[in-house]
Amino acid sequence: MVETDTGSTRADGGVRSIARAVEVLELFDAAHPLRQLRDIVTLTGLPKTTVVRLLATLESLGLIVDRGDSSYGPGPGFLRWVKLAETLWEVGPEARRVMSGLVDAFGETVNVYIRRILDRVSVAQVEGTATVRSVVEVGVPYQLASGAAGKILLGGAPDEVLRDLAARRSDLDLESLRREVAGIREAGYAVTHGDRELGASAVAAPIFGKDGRVIAALSASGPTSRFTADRVGRYVDAVTAAAREISEAGLGPVEVFL
């Protein structure tokens, strides 16, 4: 069970050419390391001449490689940024140990999510051991208002974030969202079944910074068929305990950005 949802929001007021270049780059992922020019044109909805100019600019910067057969892929210029990002956004060894312990105990995939404006992003993942398991792409934005981790992150967000989400999504009622988030904040954990995707369930708890703010969410997720009432109770106890342990030890280098 692989989550394939893409980012739900784009910052307003950005420079259009930069936004378009990022849109092109986002078309490349593990499932699509190469893209044909015609596919890039179709998927972006941009004129072919615009796409060709964007690709040429990205190629001059080493961010795109033209294979010479109208297909393109990420360029070597990303390598230094990948290494830098891994250094700065890495969770600490203690957090990794705690995450791995949860996977060993229950077999479900464990993620650490942070909030980025109106999205949630996994910055660390330890895949579950079951054959059928939940997997998200680390570093890819997912909807903040859906899923247990998103609800936890909303509990630490200012009210203006709730207002912006409700304004952008017609299916969200602001007062209902506020009540739900307040209840989850008071409980100290969130459980969702099919909230993000039919057949997917998750349990999440807050990770706190040294100043007491919610800086991240620890989530265990998998198919709903395994999240029975008995198991969910044990998952809640384990995930909340693990989140407290990570809060006390510190999340690692990534914490300076949160």
From TrEMBL:
Residues 77-252 form the IclR-ED domain. It holds the Pfam family IclR_C. Residues 15-76 form the HTH iclR-type domain. It comes from the Bacteria. Keywords: DNA-binding, Transcription, Transcription regulation. InterPro entries: GAF-like_dom_sf, HTH_MetabolicPath_Reg, Tscrpt_reg_IclR_C, Tscrpt_reg_IclR_N, WH-like_DNA-bd_sf, WH_DNA-bd_sf. This is IclR family transcriptional regulator. It comes from Amycolatopsis cynarae.
